Amino acid sequence: MKFSGKVGLVAAGVVGGVCISLGLTALAQRGPTGPLPIEDIRAITDVFDAVKRNYVEPVDDKKLLNGAIQGMLQDLDPHSQYLDADAFKDLRDSTQGEFGGLGIEVGTEDGFIKVQTPIEDTPAFRAGIKSGDLIVRIDDKSTKGLNLQDAVKLMRGKPGTKLTLTVSRKDNPVPMVFTLTRDVIKIQSVRSRDIEQGFGYVRISQFQERTVESLVTKLNEIAAKQPNLKGLVLDLRNDPGGLLHGAIGVSAAFLPQDKLVVYTEGRTEENRRKFFASPEDYRGLRDDPLRKLNPIFKTVPVVVLVNAGTASASEIVAGALQDHGRAKIVGQATFGKGSVQTIIPLSPTTGVKLTTARYYTPKGRAIQAKGIEPDYVVNETAQGDVYADLFMREADMERHLTGRDEKQADAKSAEQRARELVERAERIEKLRAEGRRPIEFGSAEDFQLAQALNLLKGQPVVTAKPKESVASAATPGDKPKK
After folding, report:
1. 68 and 126 fall within a common domain
2. Who has the most CB within 10 Å: 122, 141, 255, 305?
3. Distance from CA of residue 199 to its chain's centroid?
């Protein structure tokens, strides 16, 4: 995505469109649009008037107008949308990786808000809130049936303000009440962990303002601990994307300088661009963070882990490293979010997010609705997939933008998509009821990580081939086995 206007911003959109922040400058070049269709405009005003006069309850003008704008954009593709004041602010907060809140990652379960994990050194973590806790009330508001986005809005707020959470904890019969003081929460988008002597592991969960700087810090820590580093695993699974310059910077950490990372094609000149592994394309207005990176990471063997949740900016990184032969890709086909969204401010607090171009890998492969195919297709577990085949991809989304080589006639019907969504939801609930949870990335039970390490060691890799479960011994320099 990119901001258009005097405040420039470039980003590779997150699935669902929630990431944007200051980055590379891109000025809008608006050409003539032709005369407005008067009859169609009159139809809109007639409908507006009919609703105002006849709807069963009074309707606010602003609500009607916002709904009309949203409908206009949502009918284009899944990622174009109108950003009201709240959505505009959330978008900025998300990629800046900093906001006022409690410090918990949440989801939903049984109609309540569930704590996925408390972030270390935050109000929630210090108060003793734990993974698995169900938040049943936020101040005096019940969370039963509350939309997740609305719950997050209630918990976020100005640092220094107080909030009361009522929590239900398994094996604790009495609800627990926590009074917390909001603080500035900084999201850590890059994490590393010790896995095995001689090998490093780093995971990027989202591409934000400081992702490249954080990656440099983590990689240098790995190099310091592992003076005889033999290989690195870069984990991009479930990374929904984020800022474009973050993706370029991460790619540049492993590529020779000035290598092509990605290019875009759109209707206008400004949307036909090439982005290279050079400071001009990833550092923004700050000093080049890659100057501090240990040079070993330009040559050490790399394996990139991907899955269907790997989208947009993370697909750019995987595609660039794969095309240049810098890394092998292990896991499953990625999401296929290969479109560019431009953020056009309409006021200081609102804007329009509009799809303006498509992304292509250095070798000209289209990402949109196709994704990146791994060199080694590996299931989630040795017994097969648990959740992987339940992931929704770009090509499954209604009104998705077609790829360059995709025929619109092949698109699924709305009815078929609806059936698949219901089936997915039912299967996910069944898996949860059986106690089958997604594997923790980077853990000892992480089967895909184990295969990535086997690949780095030149040992057999267990692939998802139906007739051949174990591939022959291979090294990262060997011909890909698909």
Report:
1. no
2. 305
3. 26
The whole-angstrom separation of Cα 56 and Cα 64 is: 14
CATH number of domain containing 107: 2.30.42.10
**Any catalytic annotation for residue 94?**
no
Given 168, 192, 251, 312, the catalytic residue: 312
What's the CA gap between 74 and 399, in Å, rounded? Answer: 9
Residues 337, 353, 370, 457: which is the catalytic one?
337
Q: At 222, which CATH number?
A: 3.90.226.10
Q: How far is the C-alpha of 181 from the C-alpha of 120, rounded, in Å?
A: 15
Q: Where among 160, 186, 212 does a domain terminate?
A: 186
Closest CA to 231 of 318, 309, 328: 328
> Among all chains, which residue has been given the structure tokens 């009330």?
137
Strand duo 81-83 + 9-10: pairing = unpaired
User: Domain boundary residue among 167, 186, 205?
Assistant: 186
Same domain for 76 and 126:
no
Pair of tokens at residue 252: 């540049």
Could you tell me whether strands 260-266 and 351-360 are parallel, antiparallel, or unpaired per DSSP bridges?
A: antiparallel
Q: Which residues contact 27 (CB under 8 A, 6 or more apart)?
A: 4, 5, 6, 8, 270
Range(s) of the domain holding residue 148: 98-186
- Same domain? For 127 and 219 the reply is no
pLDDT tens digits, 389-413:
667 788 877 778 886 555 544 455 6
Two tokens at 415? 């009815």
Specify whether 72 is located in the same domain as 143.
Answer: no
| Claim to verify: residue 230 and residue 292 sit in the same structural domain | yes
Given phi > 0 = left and psi -120 to 50 = alpha, else beta, which region is 16? left
Same domain for 383 and 334: yes
Residue 182 and residue 116 share a domain: yes
The catalytically annotated residue of 239, 323, 375, 396 is: 323
pLDDT of residue 184: 87
Asked if residue 156 lies in contact with residue 184, where contact means CB atoms within 8 angstroms, the answer is no
**Among this protein's residues, is 312 annotated catalytic?**
yes
Q: Note if 278 is an active site residue.
A: no
User: For residue range 189-246, what is the model confidence (pLDDT) as tens digits?
Assistant: 999 999 999 999 999 988 988 899 999 999 999 999 999 999 999 999 989 888 899 9
Give the count of alpha carbons within 13 A of 201, CB side only.
19
The string of pLDDT tens digits covering residues 125-142 is 899 998 788 999 999 999
